[in-house]
Amino acid sequence: MRTTGTTRSPGAALAALAGAQFTVMLGTSIVNVALPQIRSGVGLSDSATTWVVNAYGLAFGALLLAGGRAADLLGQRRILLVGLGVFAASSLAAGLAATSPVLIAARAVQGLGAAAIAPAALALVMDVFPPGPGRGKALGVWGAVSGAGGAAGVLLGGVLTQAWGWQWIFYTVAIGTTLVLAAAVAGVPRAPAQVSGRFDLLGTATVTVALTALVWGLTTARRTGWSDASVLGSFAVAASLFAAFVLVERRHPHPLLPPRVLRTGRVAAGNVLMALLGSVWIALFFFLPLYQQQVLGDSPLATGLGQLPLAFANMLGSTLAPRISRRIGATVTVTGALLTEAAGLLWLSRVSAHGSYAVDVLGPSILIGLGLSIAFVQLTALSVEGAPVQDSGLAGGLVNTTRQVGGAVGLAVLATLAGTATAHAAPHQPHLEALTAGYRTAFAISSAVLAATAALALGLSRRRSAAPASDGPVPQPAAHH
């Protein structure tokens, strides 16, 4: 263990760090079910309602790299505590918001706090638990709370909104984050900064604005269409700034994203696969609650309860992932998990406009939860295991960035395709049938993406295993040790 300071229990540290990750995932999903009530509560327009979700996602996705590098330069524990404090305060502000600008601003600041929490917490997990079975188990817990946080957000959002009003979704997050902050102060050991040098302000600004432009264009395209001038303009700005970022990084003595990070181990491969997994993951939690509410007619509370089997399957899969990997190897585990999730989504693509939760949703949810959780645990390990110690926070920020940006791309594309399928079906079929046709399209394409991702995982593994010996040994995911 490389941490310093007073000796603390690794279990207590893991509990606090897992709690931090849970709050980030909770903040992503808890507002989805409550959007109609939030809209009427603060007088949001149609476009402003989407920004209750987008403001958080934009800030989170765009600032993750900066958050990861700040953790390496200033100390991972310090950045974690600051991020938790910002997240708690902004959650309280969102609950107290009486106007839409204040609410949207508070959600953006929540995203800023999450961008500090996620990479710092993951780097601390890797620091507290050295390579071996202990790290594999810790990453299993990490995967379990990540999936559970997304599902719990839908459930809590429905329960709290129905019982006490939408404000309590934010008050509850604020209270929970404060408790996690106290647990982190008590349980997470102090660790020195992992790297010295100056913060790459120009590189940070360039990539942050580039990511913001990219995610903004993708989220706006869902509403205005891909040919809209503002969407095309945002993509042009993003492309130009990404090119500028590459030039800046080549000349900076302490770049935000050192090339060594992507050349080490299987970090690059892991991030490519994580982006593809994220493209399906975020879309799933967007479309499935909509199908339950708009087609099956479930209430917000029933929709939330319907996520519990998926959450339990997710926790089970995350717990089993290290054991499975030790038995059959990381490559087979990742491939099998992706194919399992693909099978669940293919099953889900057969949903009916006149179906039921038990027949159409329950079985696929269990398969999806198992496959998603195992794949997430293994790809997280793959994406950070080989990174140099001084770049552990950055590696954590990078894998979260690829998942978020992949999710934004996937959701924008799938929402467009689903909308097109619904529009084509609308003149010939009843409303519910047309809606269901769109959801079937989204689930079927998601299944195909995951099947292709599984094939890519096999191909990348073979390419790495065939690499020359001079490249050095390839670090294996922690679950192997």
UniProtKB/TrEMBL annotation:
GO aspect biological process, one term: response to antibiotic
Membrane topology: Multi-pass membrane protein
Keywords attached to this entry: Antibiotic resistance, Cell membrane, Membrane, Transmembrane, Transmembrane helix, Transport
Main location group: membrane
Compartments (UniProt record): Cell membrane
Protein name, as recorded: EmrB/QacA family drug resistance transporter
Entry GO MF terms: transmembrane transporter activity
GO cellular component: plasma membrane
Domain Major facilitator superfamily (MFS) profile, residue spans: 13-465
Record organism: Streptomyces longwoodensis
Transmembrane segments: 12-35, 47-67, 79-98, 104-126, 138-160, 166-187, 199-218, 230-248, 268-288, 300-321, 328-349, 361-384, 405-426, 438-460
Keyword Flavoprotein assigned: no
Pfam families according to UniProt: MFS_1 (PF07690)
